[in-house]
Design a protein that fits this description.
This protein has 2 domains: 2-72, no CATH class; 93-289, Orthogonal Bundle (MetI-like fold), CATH 1.10.3720.10. The protein has helices at residues 2-28, 33-36, 44-53, 60-72, 86-121, 125-140, 143-154, 156-160, 186-220, 223-230, 235-258, 261-264, 267-273, 278-287, 291-319. The model has no long low-confidence stretch (mean pLDDT 80). The protein is built from 15 helices and no strands. 74% of the residues lie in helices and 0% in strands.
């Protein structure tokens, strides 16, 4: 209990540091949101009045105290551009990122773990090397490059390659813009989701496969596993009772570290495929110098990362009692 309390306190301090540094950096960066919201022909007095209306005329320490006080009360402020509460901006975009991140995370871990299991315990050396080359290439490819390649392949590439028209997939948006909103069904939404989910899942599955392969290989080479094998324990029972169980702990840690990607891992994908999630909202807010939205999303991202790390620590302690006394 003492260790958990210490971790929670460390997490709160880290969250405060991240948000404080972000607050300072975005306010000290070049650019003024007031000048972006007034006419190009407006005078300096008009810009000054706009800054006063937005609360940007106060000294920076006072602005910080005002913002952190609102956060402690559960008030993240109001968007400078959209003139609505930041909590509403985040709430509107959050379901999109949760859908993309949640489905892709599940697919990444299921496919990646099964592939790593195949490589570590079943595949012959030549097949193992071939899969390693493929997963390394996919994992190293930038997300925006994979996104553009997928758009090219499944739009004009389908026609160029002479593939069936049914393989042609929508490249942008969450639904057909020409269709009646009341008549749009889940089939259309899932067709629009295939490409962004594919681009998010492929690198994730490749990374999990490489990690799972190494964890399973290390577990299989442990002395007690070799001793059990020498005693004649059946291979299936050996894998279930010793190899898979020992490899579970590092996989749980990886899951905890990857969990924040559910809301924070689709920034470029949302931008490329025009999905209005948190990532696209963050990029738009940065471009518009919308300080409250940037800070609110930073708080959400940092909170997700820190909370996921805490959950991973708790799960590891429950799975491996040997660590409770360390």
């Amino acid at each position: 209990m003492h260790r958990l309390s210490s971790r929670v306190l460390d997490a709160l301090v880290l969250l405060w540091l991240v948000t404080t540094i972000t607050f300072a950096l975005i306010h000290l960066a070049p650019g003024d949101p007031a000048t972006l919201l007034i006419s190009p022909t407006a005078s300096a007095d008009d810009a000054a009045r706009q800054r006063t209306a937005m609360g940007l005329d106060a000294p920076l320490p006072m602005q910080y105290v005002r913002w952190i006080g609102g956060v402690l009360r559960g008030d993240l402020g109001e968007s400078l551009v959209r003139a609505e509460p930041v909590t509403r901006v985040i709430a509107e975009a959050l379901p999109v990122s949760l859908f993309l991140g949640g489905v892709s995370l599940l697919a990444s871990f299921v496919c990646g773990t099964l592939l790593g299991l195949l490589q570590a315990l079943r595949a012959p050396p030549r097949t193992d090397r071939a899969i390693t080359v493929i997963t390394t290439t996919i994992y190293a490819a930038p997300s925006f490059w994979l996104a553009l390649a997928a758009v090219t392949l499944f739009t004009s590439g389908v026609v160029w390659l002479g593939l069936p028209e049914s393989m042609r997939l929508p490249a942008f948006g969450m639904q057909d813009p020409a269709a009646n909103p009341s008549s749009i069904g889940w089939t259309d939404r899932w067709r629009h989701a295939v490409l962004p989910l594919l681009v998010l899942s492929l690198p994730g599955a490749a990374g999990v496969a490489r990690f799972a392969r190494r964890a399973l290989r290390d577990a299989a080479g442990a002395p007690h596993v070799q001793a059990a094998l020498a005693r004649g324990l059946a291979r299936g029972a050996l894998e279930r009772a010793h190899i898979l169980r020992n490899a579970l702990t590092p996989l749980v840690v990886l899951f905890g570290l990857t969990l924040p990607g559910v809301i924070a891992g689709s920034v470029f994908v949302e931008q490329v495929f025009a999905w209005p999630g948190l990532g696209r909202t963050m990029l738009s807010a940065i471009a518009a110098r919308d300080y409250p939205v940037v800070l609110g999303l930073t708080l959400a991202y940092a909170g997700a990362v820190i909370t996921a790390n805490l959950l991973a620590d708790v799960m590891v302690l429950r799975l491996d009692p040997r660590r409770r006394s360390s």
